[in-house]
């Protein structure tokens, strides 16, 4: 390789690395800015109660997909750790719904804040392929009102999507009595 070609290749590589770094920095800046704007809308999340009654819907293992500002299924909430996907266990109690997330703080949704529990094709930029005969059964979406008055959708996909139906009937399927303890999550790491 001759010297002018080598110099041109090195200059091109440096420019390319600088452009990639700039794009990554702008993306991170946009993520932080979005978080600052959403902090005012979201405020503080409800705290997890010290005690709860027996589960009305048994613990459901699956994947927490994130939260979105209602009614926009693609407007991901990035405040705190709400924007990260992780393994989770979803349990319904008479007092509310607990989302225990692996590697993140649990989310408590008080019963009086729940607006609707439904299934959707996708949430937070994540679309799940439909099951035959059930086109909207990819994601369990829980719409709830925050103390600030803002409505938010929390997305969850059960490991076995047939378990979504237990959540849609309002928790009529009672859990076994030994399920009163909150199940612990397994970490991948």
TrEMBL record:
Basic and acidic residues composition bias: residue spans: 154-166
Domain of life from the UniProt record: Bacteria
Pfam families: bPH_11
Keyword Transmembrane helix attached: yes
Keyword Nucleotide-binding: no
Keyword annotations from UniProtKB, A to Z: Membrane, Transmembrane, Transmembrane helix
Entries under InterPro entries matching the protein: PH_bac
Listed transmembrane segments: 6-28
Residue ranges that the Swiss-Prot or TrEMBL entry lists as coiled coil: none
Domain called PH: residue spans: 42-168
Region (Disordered): 153-189
Protein name: Transporter
Species of the source: Mycolicibacter terrae
